[in-house]
Every structure is written in C-alpha cells, then in structure tokens.
Specification:
Helix content: over 70%
Distance between the termini: 19 Å
Number of helices: 8
Strand content: under 5%
C-alpha cells in the first residue's frame, strides 16, 4: 500500500528534478552553440566561437576529471559535510578553469565551463539522502566513454565541413595552430555538438535511491 510522501521527500524530489533539469539544459545549450558554430560560424560572436568551442571541448577534460570527486561527495549525507566538499572542489576547478581561459585568452570559456559545472554540482548538492552512487558512477562512466568514442570517431571518420571553409577559418581564427582541432575545428565542433546533446540526456536521468535490502 502506497503512503503519501512527506513534505521533506517532496522538497527533495523537486530539488533533484531542478538539479537534473539545470544540468541537462546547460548541456543542451552548449550543444546548440557547438552546432551553430559548426554550420554557421559567423552567427555567434562574429565567428569567435569557433576558437572558443575548441577550447571548451579541451576544458571538458576537467569536467570528466571531476567526476570521481563528485561521486565521493554524493556519498556524503546532505548537510555541512557535503557542502564543504563541494565548495572545496568548486574552488579547485575554478582555478583550473581560469588557467585554461587565460591560455585561450577568453573569459567566455570560463563562463561556459562554470555553466556546465554548476548544473552538475547542483545535482550532487540536492541529491536526496540515500541516493545511490551507482547512478553517479554511471553518469561519470557514460560521459567518459562518450567523450573518448566521439573524439576517436571524428578523427578516424570524415566530418562535414559545415560552414567552416578555409576562407572563413582564416577570418575567424587567423592564428590557429597546427593541431588537428586547430586545422580542422569542424571535428571538434561536431564532437561537442553530439557530446553535449547526449550528455544532457544522461544528466536528465533521475537518481535512484539506494536499495535498503
């Protein structure tokens, strides 16, 4: 026989839903920016997002790296202990984000990084007590595998050029280096578009409470 949920449970469910939606929407927003920069590079900030997209995909390594620490934080009970862990981790990754933003000479990279990370941190912070770390592990593993598979696929398989013609690339990124993503940013932008689209679906999945028995 089902019993009505308590106000605390209802509030926890709403917090979990808000966190999942925040994380998912931030990913889908990023996917749209990557897609637009791939096919209509001049449509966002006069083409500067071609370079920014490559930088953001590189900084995603930090997001993947943070997954293990977020899993550890998710295992803590809600309260001051979990909050302290997340504040400490947040400060650490902000420093990393600032370092990469300085390397790319772009604060937009930092802002995008913070937008994505804030959703994931919020999901952990609002996770109800007893939420299974198995779901966080699934998200971390799925995100890592998805990132690596897409990177290798876009390296091995031909990627449509989209709107990034040689003329456009010289205009929007005149000092691009010799790396693959710098010579062919469409590979990075295609990777980012698909990666963040699918990642949003993963982030939207509800957290399952741990089994009592």
């Amino acid at each position: 026989m089902e019993t009505p949920g308590t106000p605390g449970e209802a509030q926890g469910s709403l917090g979990d839903l808000a966190g999942r939606l925040w994380a998912a929407v931030s990913c889908w927003f990023m996917a749209s920016l990557f897609f637009l920069s791939w096919w209509w590079p001049r449509s966002i900030d006069h083409g500067r997002w071609v370079k920014l997209g490559v930088g953001i995909l590189a900084i995603e390594f930090l997001v993947i790296h943070s997954s293990a620490f977020l899993i550890s934080a998710s295992a803590a009970k809600p309260g001051s202990g979990r909050t302290r862990s997340l504040v400490g981790l947040g400060a650490l990754y902000v420093v990393f984000g600032i370092a990469i933003a300085l390397a790319f000479h772009s604060w937009e990279i930092l802002a995008s990084f913070l937008a994505v990370m804030s959703g994931r941190f919020w999901t952990v912070w609002t996770a109800p007590e007893g939420a299974s770390t198995a779901m966080f592990r699934f998200r971390a593993a799925a995100g890592t595998v998805l990132y690596l598979v897409l990177v290798f696929l876009t390296i091995l398989l031909p990627v449509p050029q989209g709107g990034i013609t040689p003329e456009v690339l010289r205009e929007v990124w005149p000092n691009a280096g010799s790396g693959l993503w710098q010579r062919h940013p469409e590979t990075a932008l295609a990777t980012g578009a698909v990666y963040f689209l699918v990642l949003g679906l993963i982030e939207a999945r509800p957290l399952k409470p741990s089994s009592a028995g």
